[in-house]
Structure formats: C-alpha cells, structure tokens
Amino acid sequence: MKIPNANKDLLVVGSVAYDSVETPQGSVEKALGGSASFASIAASYYCHPLVVGIVGTDFEDRHIGILEAHGVDTRGVERKEGKTFHWRGRYHGNFKERDTLETALNVFESFDPRIPPDYRSARYVLLGNIAPSLQMKVLDQAGDAEVVAMDTMNFWIETARDELMAVLRRVDLLFINDEEAFQLTDERSLVGAAERILNMGPRYVVVKRGEYGAVLFGSGLQLFVPAVLLRAVVDPTGAGDTFAGGFVGRLAGSGELDRPGLAEALLCGTVMASFAVEAFSVEGICGLTPEAIDSRRAGLERMIRI
Amino acid sequence: MKIPNANKDLLVVGSVAYDSVETPQGSVEKALGGSASFASIAASYYCHPLVVGIVGTDFEDRHIGILEAHGVDTRGVERKEGKTFHWRGRYHGNFKERDTLETALNVFESFDPRIPPDYRSARYVLLGNIAPSLQMKVLDQAGDAEVVAMDTMNFWIETARDELMAVLRRVDLLFINDEEAFQLTDERSLVGAAERILNMGPRYVVVKRGEYGAVLFGSGLQLFVPAVLLRAVVDPTGAGDTFAGGFVGRLAGSGELDRPGLAEALLCGTVMASFAVEAFSVEGICGLTPEAIDSRRAGLERMIRI
Questions:
Q1: What residues in B contact A193, CB-CB < 8 Å?
Q2: Is A295 helix (H, G, I), strand (E, B) or coil?
Q3: Model ipTM?
Q4: pLDDT digits (tens, 9 = 90+) for B150-174
Q5: What does the pLDDT read at residue B5?
Q6: For position B155, which CATH number holds?
Q7: What confidence score (pLDDT) does residue A6 get?
Q8: Which residues of chain A make contact with B304, given a CB cutoff of 8 A?
Q9: Alpha-carbon distance B43 to B268, whole Å?
Q10: Which residues form the domain of A260?
Q11: What's the pTM value of the predicted model, to 2 decimals?
C-alpha cells in the first residue's frame, strides 16, 4: 500500500519543552526537549514536519531556530504569556531507573491544540505523547489525514484510560513500550498484548523494548529490528519520541506502507533513537549527515541479515 | 570457512542430572536435566552428538533411552555407585527470578571426564556449563578438535576465574549471557564486553539475552537473532544449554563457519531454545519433526527480513 504525500507533510502535535536532566554522564539545564521537538527533528530527515505546540515567553529564539534549521515548520507553535513546560529528571542505576524531580506544566496546562488551516491537509499525523484528551482534539481537526500514529505512556494508561481507549479506536498505529503494553492489556506476553491492542482499534502496534529493539505487529506481520549496539548512552530522554518521529517520518516521506516500507520505517526510527541517546537534549539528532545516517542504517541491517 | 565433519560428530561434555523444578506453570520432580542432556538432544537435530557425563545408580534406563532415541551416543556416560546430580529450583516473578533450593552434586562431585578413544576424533566439541577445571581436562584429551565451544555461568566467574581464563585462552567460541559478560569484563556495554572477551582468547562470543535474543561478535562480525515471541513460557531451565547445543550442532552438522553458517547457527540455537522453554525438562525438544523446526525457523527469519 502506498499513500502518496507529494509535499511530504507530517503533522506533529506534542510538547515543546525545557528539560533539565542529570545522568551518570553529566547534566544539562533547560535544554530543548518535549515530544514534538524530538519527533519533528528526527522526522525532518525523511519528510517535512509541521509542528503544533505551545511555549512560554521565556522560550528562546535559538531553540525555535534549531527546529527551523531542520526544515521544521514552526508556525503552529503558539507562544503564550508565561513559562515553558519544564521537566527535571535524574537517571541512575545504569539508566534502568529514572526519577522525575519536577514537572512544571506552565503554559502547557492551557494547551488547546489548534491546527493552522494549511496544516490540515497533512495526510500523515503523529500524536505525540500528550494527554489523550488533547490527542482527541487534534483528531477532530485533522479529518483529512489518512495515517494517524500516536504515542502514549504509563501515566495516561493510569489516569486517563477511557480517553485513551477512545483515541485508540481512531488511530492507525500505536507506539508503546513493552511494560506499558502489558499494563494496558493485562497480558504477559508480547504476542498476547499486541493482539489485544490490535483489537482496540489500531491497524499496527509498535512495541518499543529500549536497548533491545522494537517489534511491529499488525496485518498478519511481525517485524523486528534490534537497537543499535552503542558503547555509551549519555541521555535516554526523548528516545521514544525520536523513534516515533523517525518511523512516521519515513512513512510520510516515502508513502510506503507495505511490508518493506514498514520494515524500513522500523530501521529509521531505530537509527534516529540511537543517535538521540548519545547526547543530551536533541543534540545527537541535530545536523546529521546522510552519510552518518546511512552508515548506521547499513550496520543495523547487516547485523540481522541471514 | 568450512571444517568438514564427515561423520557429523559433536563431543558434548557436561552434566546429566535430575531437576526438580517449580514454576508459575506447574512443577516436576526428578525430571531429566543437565547441560549435556539439553545440549545433546538439541544438537541431535543437526549432527551426531557423543556425550560424556556421569550418573548414579539411581539413574533410570528410560532417561538414557530419551537420549538414545535422538541418536545421541551415550557410551561416554559413566555410571557410578551413588546418586545422580540433583538440582531443585523455583522460578517466580514472571521468570525474572530463580531460587536454587538444593544442589546435590552426588556422583558429579567425583566427575573426572574421560573421553572414550573413539570419541577423540570429534572435530567439534561443546564444553557444557561445568567447572572450568573439568573443561580443561576435556581440552587435554580432545586435542584433535578444530572447533571448541564452551558455556559458562556467573558461579564460575565468581569462584574459579583463573581457571576460567585459562580455558578461555584455548577455546574458539564462548556462550555467555549479558549480565555474566558484564561481570567477566567490568564493562557496561555489550560491544565493550564482547571486545574484552575476544581479547581473552575466543574467536567468537555469543551473548545470550534471554527473551530478547542473542548476538554473535567476532571476526569483525556482529550478528543478531531475536528470540521467538512465545505466548507462554513453562520452564526456562536448560534454555542456555539448549541454545548452545542447537548452535554448535548446526556448525558440526554443516561444517559451515562462514558468515551465513554462523547466522544459521544463531537461528538454530534460538529455535531450539524456544521449544525448550515451552515445556518442563527436555520435553519441549523431544521428538520434534523437521516441519515443526522449519516452520519456526522460517517465522523467525521472516521477522527480521528487511
């Protein structure tokens, strides 16, 4: 199946935020973060992302500049009196655990996603990891989309399950990690959980397994791509958003939704996520050359070639 | 590279034991177990295993019969006055944890592996997960072997590191799980740990990651095969031994040690391990049809085909 997308537009709705992060490798203060930032930069290597988000008056021009330098359309990023969403966290135990030290929603609390008229023709949509009620508002405005993918997390499964289920019924693809898949379905096997999720609405589900890779289920397919084996992880923040951005970006850029297209999308998401975790904030995925991307993709593909 | 092996002999040295196991799925009492049992049955689908081990006078003929029904040569299994090695364990926490309740070495305590003269011409050898000092005794008798693979575990890393290092210098391939690889090398990344291990002697190291699959490193290669996605695990006992048996069995049966041969060996080890964990004791890998094996292999290969 191919869903042509002449202008390669991908609508990305999510958070644009400041992250203060401490890991065993160092720390950053108020660095660019948020699901929409990671996802749109990752997607920019494959398609033309249009971002909808909200920032405060403290948001620096140079941070909008980072997105724009990657060809991301930021006209949909609303600027509002107040402070930008700020998350502070600390990783420890060799990245196995993460403590959230502070979540200041700030202007994000009043986020009411409005899709600019000329964004509405986007045939590909990525609903970043935000409240299901906000994701639903986007769905109501992006009726022309043919492929809608969404991300979510344990917090929404625990606090907004009904709204989440309602969104799930209307999307084509769900990104979720393995623990969240078990939590959402009460299943204990990946196969069982995937089956249950496919019955909730999406045609496809991509289960992220962190350093072990990701598996796509749907349309009778099981596709697996391992994570890139890295010597050192610096900061895993945004890895999931980046994976989703690379994956859906490849779909939007190529229009290929058949088996080879989906396998390639898995590779693209995986490669992007591998770059993301090698540096703080969005640094690892900024300014990548086609050669660097291709080389990592080729190494990954070679690793699983029988 | 091809190392011809006309008679497809594979010498397997390890424990032949009785296991009493309790898992969330049920329990068994004094069922056939031990590294040599799992490995030789798994290998039997690809080559001709010759087993060296020791059992007590309580060991039942029907258990030797299980090995022989799979074409395993058991003349090297010594029978000695006393009781057979008995292990009792319990799995819990969705198989994440295992308690050893009893380890009665019994006759295994005096195991002094003697390789029968007509076993000594085996060009392929698998040193099962036993004390490095015993593995060394086998090496001293199996000088004609061209490919020697070994398995090990955390217990030997902690209690017999020097002997283990001496054995490592003389083998071609090491099977080890990820945590043990980190423990052995003081590295935190798989790539770093593999590099260190390759500097210790082996040409190849296969890092087992349980439900996530296995990675082979060596000769400039990185090869990855994910685990088969199963609906339910019944008993993981012996999964590592089975993996090693399937892997080395494929090498011994085909003589193919080039890239495609090694990739195929990873598939064979993975497929065998997937059958093993679906039942207690060796039941899951007994009497498998070529069709059942091929079908599972094909599904696995399809899952990673780009």
A1: none
A2: helix
A3: 0.91
A4: 999 999 999 999 999 999 999 999 9
A5: 87
A6: 3.40.1190.20
A7: 85
A8: 223-225, 304, 306
A9: 9
A10: 9-303
A11: 0.94
